[in-house]
Write a structure and sequence with these properties.
Blueprint lengths: L4 E6 L5 H16 L3 E7 L3 H4 L5 E5 L7 H12 L3 E4 L2 H10 L15 E4 L4 H4 L2 E4 L3 E4 L5 H9 L3 E6 L10 E3 L11 H6 L7 E6 L13 H18 L4 E6 L7 H4 L3 E4 L4 H10 L2 E4 L5 H8 L4 E5 L7 H7 L6 H10 L17 H4 L9 E4 L3 H12 L3 H18 L4 H9 L1
Helix pairs in contact: 8-13
Length: 417
């Protein structure tokens, strides 16, 4: 059979996670003998530049000319399929550029496919934000956009985050981590002694918000500060390595044990993850978690499951015990709303996706405000304890379950036959 050519489109300026998934899809397709091209946002260049895949870049200043660029690129590539990563994000980005009519995305002379990150059949399109607000995943003329989405019958549903079953469209989406090389050089570069321990914490641009609207800015600041105090309580041999678009002012809390790095190229980032002893994430659906699972790096996901409006409610949520420093931070940040995807919320939205999902067995999910539990569990997982080995065994089991699913190439072949 003649090799197919696929165009993957990941153009939203806040789509690092989706672009990471797109690369995994592309690797599967390439391994099956197909050719892959990309159309990406300029901010995602670090994810693609060392992959070997050819890509065209969309920049914000192009405005309404983006449609011309889309049409031109599709004409040049002449793909056998166009895969949007994902359709709603692509439509939202076009609207951001002033293009309200996204129906042209469905009109190219080849099958149209979308990445279905949140398993739309389960979650729908209404999201809970900031505790007491709701919004739509798609912007603009919502009914029209959903109608367009519903016309896309070929949907790639990644596992993780979806549950492991044989529903059409589901594919194994754990990263390929073979051949990443030694991780020791990262500790050497950061001057972290070999007998010290590393906790990794990662942020994206959309998680650094300064405003106070809906309390988002307060929670953006609160969660990293709490994590820094938890790390301090773990002792002088535990370092916090933070990867994100800008650093935090944690020197007064952690001194030389806080290390900031800007976003890294994919393989460098994987090496860094493999060098960590523990990943802390307040985003249950961070693609970093999947990489850590594949690399057998223990993971703690930090969530908040209740609306906390007063310090008394916070103490109750914490089980009656909070340090003075954390109490002060909570007082400055109230109210603290439920979230599994910090700082947005998504607590109700993602519940159908995460319930009875094997993915959630591959890490520990703890309440952020339960200080003693977070610190105690972190200590267990940072050291060579039965708890650490038990988590790694759960990760291996999950990896094996996902490995039994079709690859993205298998699913695409079924779509296009």
């Amino acid at each position: 059979m003649k090799p197919r050519r696929h165009l993957l489109v990941a153009v939203h300026h806040q789509s690092w996670g989706r672009t990471e998934m797109a690369v995994r899809i592309a690797q599967d397709l390439q391994a099956a003998g197909d050719e892959v091209r990309f159309l990406i946002h300029a901010s995602e260049i670090p994810l693609l530049e060392k992959t070997g895949f050819k890509f065209e870049v969309v920049r914000d200043h192009i405005g309404g000319l983006a449609r011309v660029l889309f049409d031109k690129h599709v004409s040049q590539v002449r793909p056998d399929s166009v895969i949007y990563c994902d359709f709603f994000n692509t439509s939202n980005y076009l609207l951001h550029l002033g293009i309200s009519d996204s129906e042209f995305l469905l009109g190219y002379d080849c099958p149209t496919v979308t990445l279905d990150v949140w398993d739309y059949q389960l979650t729908g399109h209404r999201i809970d934000l900031f505790g007491e607000s709701t919004a739509d995943l798609v912007h603009g003329d919502i009914n029209q956009k959903i109608s367009e989405f519903n016309r896309i019958t070929h949907r790639l549903i990644p596992v993780p985050f979806a549950a492991c079953d044989d529903r059409s469209g589901k594919f194994a989406c754990l990263p390929k981590n073979s051949g990443i090389g030694s991780a020791k050089d990262w500790r050497d570069r950061l001057n972290i002694p070999a007998d010290h321990q590393v906790v990794l914490f990662c942020t994206s641009r959309w998680q650094h918000v300064n405003g106070s609207e809906n309390g988002t800015g307060r929670l953006c600041s609160f969660v990293p500060k709490v994590i820094s105090y938890y790390i301090r309580r773990l002792g002088p041999a535990v370092h916090l390595v933070h990867v994100g678009p800008k650093s935090y002012e944690f020197q007064h809390v952690l001194g030389h044990r806080y290390h900031w790095l800007p976003p890294l190229a994919r393989n460098d980032f994987k090496k860094l993850i493999s060098s960590a002893d523990l990943l802390l994430s307040p985003n249950m659906c961070a693609t970093t978690i999947a990489t850590a699972i594949e690399l057998n790096v223990p993971v703690i996901v930090l969530r908040n499951s209740r609306m906390v409006r007063t310090i008394d409610e916070a103490i109750e949520a914490a089980g009656g015990e909070l340090s003075d420093n954390v109490q002060t931070l909570i007082t400055e940040s109230l109210p603290i709303y439920p979230f599994v995807l910090w700082p947005l919320g998504y607590y109700q939205f993602l519940s159908p996706l995460l319930t009875s999902n094997e993915y959630c067995e591959a890490f520990d999910s703890l309440e952020l405000l339960q200080e003693s539990s977070v610190i105690g569990r972190s200590e267990e997982l940072l050291n060579e304890t039965p708890a650490r080995q038990e988590m790694i065994a759960r990760q291996v089991n999950y990896t094996q379950q996902v490995g039994k699913l079709p690859t993205a190439a298998d699913v695409m072949n079924g779509f296009l036959q």
